[in-house]
Each structure stands twice: as C-alpha cells, then as structure tokens.
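Quick review question:
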C-alpha cells in the first residue's frame, strides 16, 4: 500500500549531484536506517549499498534527464520502499510504499512528509506551483487572492490541492495553521482567511449559511468535486479530529494520483532496459559483423525484460492477494466494525453511536418478531449497551421549555451546558447547537402563549437530537 505520494516542481538548482548529496544526507541523518559505510565518488550515478535488511540504490536515466533513488528495508511492519525521482529542472516525485508480509502486525498508515521532503523545501529547491510557492507555511488569502482567483478560473493548472481554512465566529481557526501547513508541505497549499478576503466567496456551490470554521479543499483535477469539511462553530472542542479529516482527505487524494511510468521506480527501470535494447539494435552493421556477441547480449537483455514483466505480473497478483488478506484479517476479528465513520464528528463523546443505537431500538419496536431483521437488530442492541443520551437531552429540553416565558439565567445555563450557542437578534434569540449553523432555531425573547415552549422543544428534538 502507498502511505505517501506527491509530486511538485523544483528549481534547476536541484541538479543530479545535489540530489544524490541530499539522498545521502537524508540517510546519514536517520537514527535507524543509516548505513555505516556509504561512500560516493561524486561522479557515478549508478550505485548500490546493502547492509543486513536494508539497501539503497541510485540509478540514472540519461535519455530523459532523470535520476532516482530507492531505499528499501524490512521490519516488523513489512517491506518498505521509499523512492525519490528527480526530473532535472522540472519536478520531484516522492513515493513511500509498504509491502505487507505474513508477519505484518499493523498496516494502518500514518501520513507524514519524509524528512527528505522537508530538506528539499527548507533548502529552497522547491519551485512555484504556477504562482503559489511550495512551502511549509500557510499563505494569506489577502496576499494571494488575485493569484488564487486566476487558478480557480482555470487560467493556471496546479500540481497540488489548495486547502482553504476560514475563521470561526470567535476569530480563531478550527485548526493550528502552522501545524497543518507543516504536515501538508509538498502535498498541498494551505490558504487561511485573513483580515479582508473571505473564503466564503468560494462557497457559491454550497450552503450559503455556512459561516465560520469550515475548510474547503480544491483539487487540481477539475473533474473532482471540491470537498468541504463541515463548519465547526465557536464551541468546537475537537481540533485534532478536524486536523485528521483535512490531512486524510489530502493524502488520500495524493496517494491515488496516477503518475507517468518514468515517475515510478519500476517504470524508470523498464525505460532504461528499453533504451538499452534500442542501442543494441541501432547499428545494423555492428549487428551483422558481431552478430554472435550481440545476440548473446541481446538475449540477456530480453531475459531481463521478461523477468521484469514476470515480476510485475507477480506484483499485481501479490497486491490482489494482499488486499484479500487484509479484508479477511479484518473480517476475522471478534469485534469488527459494521460501518465506518464519515465526515461528521461527535458533538459530545459517543453522540453518533448513541443516535445510531437509538434508531435501531426504535426500529425494533415495530419490527415483526421472529424475523431475520428482528434477530440481527436485537443481537446488536444486546451487545452494544448505550446511555440513551439523546432521550435524556430530549426530556431535559422538554422540561426546561415547558411554560417558557423568557430566557432566564438558569435556562441559559442549562442550554449552554448542553452545547447551545446563544446570540441576540433584536426581538429574538438564536440558539445554535454546538455552534453548527445547520442546527439553529429562533425563539422570541418573550413567550407568546403556553404552547410556545413545547413547540420549540419539539422543533429542537426533531432537528438536533
């Protein structure tokens, strides 16, 4: 499986010698992967070092002005392959892949830029992605607005996605911009809302009521729908979850982008064999005069090509089997997930689980007894005890709003403790559940009759609980 993949433009300063120097620095700076004897003559662009369970290879494809490195090691998680491929003067491709084995104990990836990427960016070798710099710090929307408008109008094609982060209603961001920019360096541009420009200007295709704390991801692929991380209000208490949703969305996109053959290690090595075969056939006179020797060499090259194709076919089969094995491993667990979390996050601990179990419990009351559905739902409810929090909140609101006349201190305190954000709008109050503007109700400051409170309790129940 691919755990990291990106491609971004670089300057001509990153030539072949500099590339190999930084590959060596990357390795020698590693605490666990460092080779004890890694000597390079500074001239040869085809080299290989091996120690125990790891090896580092440097190869060059002169015809396409490409130089690449592969670092490979095996540990308890499986076989790791880290590839850096430089198209000189144009772009750099990075790919980290984990090939699981029978001894793999954990195959869930942790997305993080390799130190090599940080080196390249920190030393100023990255070039502009059209008019946006590839770096490790966030970009102010005020400063880059004109350039971004040009990009979004289709006048420029980006290499990397743009992650727009808007401010919450209290003026803070839903995530730490500095940490997010560092985590996504070389994979995406992080653009944050500043004092003048407003990110909601780019939200015309979405709910106009979205305001404060939302994140919009715009992908380079124009056919791919822009992704919105739902708005999180002033009371958002889980910035780590928001951070994870953003980074996962970006890395999942980046890891699925198709690359040119020569932007992969196996594709580059295949191209190298192709050029070598062409060289052998290019001089017909030599072929006729020295046919015996040439045929021997050519036969060897054909054998290598056939062996490579054989290995590639085996790799396809291995990946298919690996995928099946991972599915089976998940299915064999005693406690297995029936469904996976989407983009909604819990407003309070276990909220989504509580809602789902309450829905199942309600369904069971009207389900014909003795049916398959009756048995499945009963089994789930018996093995997933829950606290009936939505029902408790429903009752709290019903009692609190019975005979509502005005918003007193005790009622305000109860509502705020339940996650409501209360704002004053002239003759009315606006109550927003956990600051999420999708879940807002408006109530008069003074109740008109005894039914006003009950009607509001019913509306809150249907919309929020």
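Suggested answer, residue by residue:
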């Amino acid at each position: 499986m691919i755990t990291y993949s990106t491609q971004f433009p670089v300057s001509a300063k990153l030539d072949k010698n500099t590339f190999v120097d930084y590959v060596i620095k990357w390795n020698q700076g590693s605490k666990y992967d460092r080779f004890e004897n890694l000597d390079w003559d500074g001239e040869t662009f085809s080299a290989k070092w091996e120690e125990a369970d790891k090896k580092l290879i440097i190869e060059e494809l002169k015809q396409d002005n490409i130089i690449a490195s592969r670092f490979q090691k095996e540990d308890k998680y499986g076989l790791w392959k880290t590839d850096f491929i430089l198209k000189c003067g144009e772009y750099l491709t990075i790919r980290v892949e984990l090939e699981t084995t029978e001894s793999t104990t954990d195959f869930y990836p942790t997305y993080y830029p390799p130190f090599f990427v940080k080196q390249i960016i920190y030393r100023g070798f990255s070039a502009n992605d059209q008019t946006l710099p590839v770096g490790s710090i966030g970009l102010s929307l005020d400063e880059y607005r004109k350039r971004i408008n040009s990009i979004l109008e289709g006048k420029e094609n980006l290499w990397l996605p743009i992650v727009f982060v808007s401010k919450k209603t209290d003026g803070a961001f839903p995530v730490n911009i500095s940490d997010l920019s560092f985590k996504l360096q070389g994979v995406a541009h992080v653009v944050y809302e500043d004092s003048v420009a407003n990110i909601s200007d780019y939200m015309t295709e979405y709910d106009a009521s979205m305001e404060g704390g939302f994140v919009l991801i715009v992908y380079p692929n124009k056919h791919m729908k822009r992704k919105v991380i739902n708005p999180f209000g002033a009371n958002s208490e889980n910035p780590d979850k928001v951070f994870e949703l953003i980074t996962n969305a970006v890395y999942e996109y980046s890891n699925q982008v198709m690359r040119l053959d020569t932007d992969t290690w196996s594709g580059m090595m295949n191209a190298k064999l192709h050029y070598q075969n062409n060289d052998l056939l290019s001089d017909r006179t030599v072929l006729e005069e020295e046919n015996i020797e040439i045929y021997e060499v050519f036969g060897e090259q054909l054998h290598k090509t056939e062996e490579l194709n054989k290995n590639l076919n085996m790799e396809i089969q291995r990946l298919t089997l690996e995928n099946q094995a991972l599915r089976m491993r998940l299915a064999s667990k005693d406690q297995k997930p029936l469904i996976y979390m989407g983009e909604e996050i819990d407003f309070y601990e276990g909220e989504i689980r509580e809602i789902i179990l309450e829905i199942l419990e309600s369904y069971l009351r009207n389900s014909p007894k003795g049916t398959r559905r009756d048995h499945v739902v009963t089994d789930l409810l018996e093995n997933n005890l829950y606290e009936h929090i939505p029902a408790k909140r429903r009752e709290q609101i019903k009692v609190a709003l019975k005979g509502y006349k005005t918003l007193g201190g005790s009622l305000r305190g109860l509502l705020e403790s339940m996650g409501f954000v209360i704002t004053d709008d002239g003759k009315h109050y606006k109550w927003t559940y956990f600051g999420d503007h999708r879940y807002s109700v408006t109530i008069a400051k003074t109740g008109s009759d005894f039914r006003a409170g009950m009607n509001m309790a019913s509306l809150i129940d249907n919309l929020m609980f």
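Why it works: The longest strand covers residues 66-75. The chain has a mean pLDDT of 81.
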